[in-house]
Specification:
The protein is mainly beta and 491 residues long. It has five helices and 28 strands. A hairpin with a 5-residue loop joins β24 and β25.
């Protein structure tokens, strides 16, 4: 977990701190790695993608490849690759470790271009392999692309063993709806897709079959977003309401928790998300005459703050993964950075510093200006110099990382024990009857099969690893590399 620099600081922004001049229609912070939240990807209405440094407020990359608006952005897990999708029916993978130069052959940041048969609404990387991509087309199709073998699979609302004629025939009781949005779970073990009929589908990426159908709304689901832990998912429907669901990591059971909406104006939502720690829910209102971002408390559903910006409609917004910072896009293309207001803390200049309203007489302490013994001072400095400080090892909890699948957390060491899983079910030790024991045993077997499926998906995703091991925009020196002896000629 990210270490808190100030545990008493406010956890949500208050006002616009700065504005980035651009032609943006979409924004996204990089969510993982040591540089989490340090860079902001901006997709432009003219097809140009910019990467901004959040600290310096400067552009560090300009990527030209699309000819229409870039509405989808996705970072790889180590920030080396950036996936952009556009209405020109293409998705481009950019290698940010390459500095593009027109006079140098092969020095192009464009690593791969994927073409589709329809405009691409959004595209995301698989959390564990940047060579697996999930794209949502504006025609209502979701395509799973595997660059390792070049396959493109259109996902369908089909359950393994289910008769297709029963659903689509004249006597079919269920109508199939097109998919409007889709995302990977943060651990990459499942695909969650929202349909135009208000049904949330849980799909196995390996078998491509639907594992679960949940009716969550009577209107079309437009957006899906997970929190960093993967235990909560929020979705936006066309009925102008946000719905929060909890995800059971063992059984993948979806439980509706809360519902959020603008009770006054009934505004639609152009963007949704969570704060970095998952404590707050964010909704970017699509009001025609205002630029508002709503912030609710996830547990109590209390409206904490309504961030009121310039009098321009909001197009998109994203929350910083570790800090109370929000980036929002206006219809003019400008990107507004929201932060907390930090008053001047004069006590930080020196311990015990006090700000006085008028001059007072200073009382000198008896030992305040005593001269310290030079021998003791030199000995203390020598002891401080002998301390070994490790500057090479990165702490495991120093920056956000994608969550691991369930199999890696508890069941990676050996065989799956059905008795241990059954013991986790309530009242499994003292069943009321044989029928209860049978039901609990069946539940344990179902959980075991789910864990086995998760392990199979992880093995499939990591079968051919990618080269996404680079963690910065400039290669750092290897401080552990030995310096070789130079030859006599100086080479």
């Amino acid at each position: 977990m990210q270490q808190l620099l100030n545990p008493f600081a406010q956890k949500y922004p208050e006002a616009v701190d700065s504005t980035l001049s651009s032609q943006a229609v979409s924004v996204l912070f990089n969510p993982y790695g040591p540089f989490a939240g340090h860079y902001l990807a901006v997709g432009g209405s003219d097809g140009i993608v910019e990467v901004w440094d959040v600290e310096t407020r400067g552009v560090i990359r300009v990527l030209e490849g699309h000819v229409k608006a870039v509405g989808g952005l996705s970072w790889s897990r180590n920030n080396r690759y950036l996936l952009t999708s556009s209405h020109d029916a293409t998705a481009i993978i950019w290698d940010l470790s390459v500095l593009s130069h027109p006079s140098i052959a092969g020095a192009s940041a464009r690593a791969h271009t994927i073409r589709f048969d329809a405009p691409v609404a959004s595209a995301v990387f698989h959390p564990r392999n940047s060579r697996i991509i999930l794209a949502t087309l504006t025609c209502g199709e979701v395509v799973l692309v595997d660059l390792r073998d070049g396959s493109k699979t259109v996902l369908k609302d089909e359950v393994e063993g289910e008769d297709e004629d029963q659903d689509e025939g004249a006597g079919g009781s269920r109508k199939r709806n097109s998919m409007a949005c889709a995302v990977f779970s943060p651990c990459g073990s499942r695909i969650y897709a929202g349909t135009t009929g208000g049904v949330l589908l849980v799909i196995d990426p390996l078998s491509k079959y639907v594992l679960q159908r949940v009716k969550v709304a009577n209107a079309a689901i437009r957006q899906l977003r997970f929190d960093a832990s993967g235990h909560h998912i929020i979705l936006s429907a066309s009925d102008r309401a946000l719905r929060l669901l909890s995800v059971d990591p063992i059984s993948n059971t979806l439980t509706p928790l809360h519902r959020f909406q603008d009770l006054v104006n009934r505004s639609p939502w152009h963007a949704i998300g969570f704060s970095g720690d998952g404590e707050y829910v964010m909704g970017g209102a699509g009001h025609k005459m205002a630029h508002n971002v709503f912030v609710w408390d996830r547990e109590s559903t209390v409206l904490i703050k309504v961030l009121e910006g310039p009098k321009e409609p909001l197009v998109d917004c994203d929350w910083h993964p570790t800090r109370p910072v929000i980036a929002s896009v206006a219809t003019s293309g400008d990107v507004h950075i929201w932060q907390t207001s930090s008053p001047d803390n004069w006590a930080a200049f020196a311990p015990g510093f006090e700000e006085l309203e008028e001059n007072i007489e200073y009382d000198e302490r008896e030992d305040e200006f005593d001269i310290e013994d030079e021998t003791d001072l030199a000995r203390r400095k020598d002891l401080e110099e002998d301390l070994e400080i490790d500057v090479l090892t990165i702490e495991t909890d120093a920056y956000p990382r994608p969550p691991n699948p369930l199999s890696a957390l508890s069941l990676s060491g050996g065989e799956i024990n059905l008795d241990q899983l059954a013991a986790s079910i309530p009242d499994s030790k003292n069943p009321a009857s044989d029928s209860d024991l049978t039901e609990e045993r069946a539940a344990a077997i179902a959980i075991t099969r789910n864990v086995q499926a998760v392990r199979a998906v992880r093995a499939w995703a990591e079968k051919e690893g990618d080269d996404d091991t680079w963690e910065g925009f400039y290669q750092s020196l290897d401080l552990l590399e030995d310096i070789g002896d130079e030859n006599e000629d100086g080479s």
